Structure formats: C-alpha cells, structure tokens
Amino acid sequence: MARIVMKFGGTSVANVERIRQAARHVKREVEAGHEVAVVVSAMAGKTNELVGWCTEASPMHDAREYDAVVASGEQVTAGLMAIVLSDMGVQSRSYAGWQVPIRTDDSHGSARITDVDPKNLDERMSSGWVPVVTGFQGISDKNRITTLGRGGSDTSAVAVAAAVKADRCDIYTDVDGVYTTDPRIAPRAKRLERVSFEEMLEMASLGAKVLQTRSVELAMAQGVRLVVRSSFEDPNAGDAPGSEWGQTGTLVCDEEEIMEKQIVSGVTLARAEAKITLRKVKDKPGVAASVFGPLADARIVVDMIVQNISDDGQITDITFTVPDSEFDKAMKVLKSAPDLEYESISGSKGGAKISVIGVGMRSHAGVAASMFRALSDKGINIQLITTSEIKTSVLIDEEYAELAVRALHTYYGLDKADAQ
C-alpha cells in the first residue's frame, strides 16, 4: 500500500465528464489499496474568466478581493470531484485551502506556501476517505484567502504530498509524460521514463510546459517524487510490468535513482526572447547593480547575460535577454536609470533560446562544442551562449528555432533509441 497525492490540471477537469474520467483514475488507486488525496485546478478557462470579471468590475481592484473571486474556480471543481467520487462509491469530501489549512504569506496573487497542517488530511486518508483539496490557494496569517499565482496548483499538490509524507505525487495533465523535446516539432521525440529533479527544473525554466518551475523546486527540496501522467489514458489499462507508477508516465526523482545517465536527455525551445545591448558602459564597482537593479525593481525577468570587458578594463559591453513582452518596458527603464553611464543602447525582439540538458554533461567534456558544431552545420548563427553544469543554452533567430531543435535532437541520438 502506498500513499499517493493525485493532481488534476484544468484540461483534465474541463467539464463534468472529464471530472468523471479523472475520478476513475482515483478509484483505481483506491481499489488497489492505496491511501489517496486529490488536488484539483479550476476547469480549463475558468480562472481567466474570473480574472476578466475582476478587471471588468474595476481595473484597480483590491488584490484581496481578487483572490476571493479567483479562488472560487478550484472550489467548484473540488466539490464536483467529491460528488462524482461519492457517486462511484468512493468516500470523499472537499477541502478549500483554508480548511486544510494551507498557510501562506500575504502576497495576494502570488503568495508562497509557508506551512501545510496535515492533521485533517491524515485522518481522512487513514480512514479510507479521499480528501479533495483545492489547488492554487491558501490562507494568510490575516485569515484572508490567497492565491499562489502561475503554477499554483502543481505547487499545492507537492506541498500537500510533502505534508502527508506521500510516497509520490502524480501530476495528471493532457500529455503522457516528459518528452525529449516537443513532439509537435520533432515527431520522433521519445517519452522519458525517468528524469532527475535537476533536469526537470532546467527543462521547466527553459521552455518545457509540462511542469511549473516552482513545483519542481519544492519537490526537489522536499524529496517528493513526481510522476507526470495523462488523465486521458484508460484508467483500467492496468500497471505495466516492472513499473511502480503505472503503464505510462515519467518519474521525476533524485539523480541516484537513474541508472543510465544520458549525456543529453532533452532539447527545449523558448520563443519570443528579446536581446538588449548596452555598449561602452563605465566598468566600475556596482555597474551590474546599476543595470539590473532597476530592471528587478520593475519586475522584469532577465535571462541570459554576457559581459565583454575592454582590454584596458575601463569599459564593458553588457548583453542580456528579456521576454519580448517586456522589451519596451526594459528599454524605458534603462534609459531613465540613475547612475548608469553608457554610450549607446540597442536591442531587438524575435529571438529563440535553444537548450540541451542532461545530468550526463557533468562527466562528459565537449558537449557545448558539439552543440555549436551541429548548429553550424545547419548554417545557424549563435548570438549568445550561457552554460551551467547540466545545460547549454544559445540564442538564435526565431526563424531557425524548429530547425535547430530537430538538428540537435537527431545529433544527440534522441531520435534513435528509446529514452530511459
């Protein structure tokens, strides 16, 4: 018997029939003897509708009341899931975030979880009931409903799994696992059976849409094993031989649980990257703070950063990327930034960031060089390069993005053998 937290995303609970399909997955695990808790998102599109209502009511609305409105989407789903499970003969009841309680700070709209009290959920699970918890929300120390922002339901599920000491957290979505790259770009992409937390964190932050970065960070910190599965697969298909989590899916786990570590496990693509270059910046202590401090204050996320210092060390060129949507705002902030001395500023939209990721890169030299060679063979020019221990990223023109993904996917052999 295992203790499992099962999370269902918006597309998996988009209507009552989809909720009924998700409930069949829950019933399968209950009938197998497992203790189960469920975390649900709002129905697909519902959160956007609620946000729209808030904006229509007042463009300058109170963030606390915004959270009270937006959190209602998950409450509807949780109640419907509990009703459907009960109708199937599975004892169940719904819990809003404040009833668990899931405690957060008071940063309305983007709150962070500070604590989850497992007592109520433990009691229900131990007695054979299935608690259905609203994702995306909690309660602040001022007793106001809060929402967690982007990726909040995944984060809620991981936090609940950590609190109740679950053996794993199953994230049900509209895809059947994590792939070596986007199958819509490279049709021969393979589903990974296992991927490390570190690799998944890089993939999530570099363009993969399967899991949100916050949830992977929390899972890695708390040691919560994740399984990415599809809610659209047959709930009665049964378990695959030798697989502890079912017939399909990808296990996200500690690196030590992965026997064969591929040099490159995946290739990711992030579109709409804008590049900004400051030329002949006075190179003195605090220059980086004078550039990136104002951007941080304006809540502009900076990604790739490259600095070139002149031979005499007096001036430097600084180039970095921001999302296309933040380009105009970033240019305005820099042009009006105090204490920032430079000769000229330039930039352009329409870049694409291509990344190769793999824990095997730690012990293999020359991965970056081979990546550059593969792109050169296709006539693709590289504008920026950044590296870490397990990934190498390059910025290229967006028109070559899909060609670059397919070329690298083939170059590293991800087309050929089954990914492990």
UniProtKB/TrEMBL annotation:
InterPro entries: AceGlu_kinase-like_sf, ACT-like_dom_sf, ACT_Aspartokinase, ACT_dom, AKii-LysC-BS, Asp/Glu/Uridylate_kinase, Asp_kin_monofn, Asp_kinase. The keyword Ligase does not apply. One of its GO terms (molecular function) is ATP binding. The keyword ATP-binding applies. Substrate binds at residues 47, 74. It comes from the Bacteria. Keywords: Amino-acid biosynthesis, ATP-binding, Kinase, Lysine biosynthesis, Nucleotide-binding, Transferase. Pathway: Amino-acid biosynthesis; L-lysine biosynthesis via DAP pathway; (S)-tetrahydrodipicolinate from L-aspartate: step 1/4; Amino-acid biosynthesis; L-threonine biosynthesis; L-threonine from L-aspartate: step 1/5; Amino-acid biosynthesis; L-methionine biosynthesis via de novo pathway; L-homoserine from L-aspartate: step 1/3. One of its GO terms (cellular component) is cytosol. ATP binds at residues 7-10, 173-174, 179, 184, 209-210. Its EC number is 2.7.2.4. It catalyses: L-aspartate + ATP = 4-phospho-L-aspartate + ADP. It is an enzyme of class 2 (transferase). GO terms for biological process: homoserine biosynthetic process; lysine biosynthetic process via diaminopimelate; threonine biosynthetic process. Residues 276-347, 356-420 form the ACT domain. Belongs to the aspartokinase family. NCBIfam families: asp_kin_monofn, asp_kinases, PRK06635.1-2, PRK06635.1-4. This is Aspartokinase. It comes from Pelagibacterium lacus.
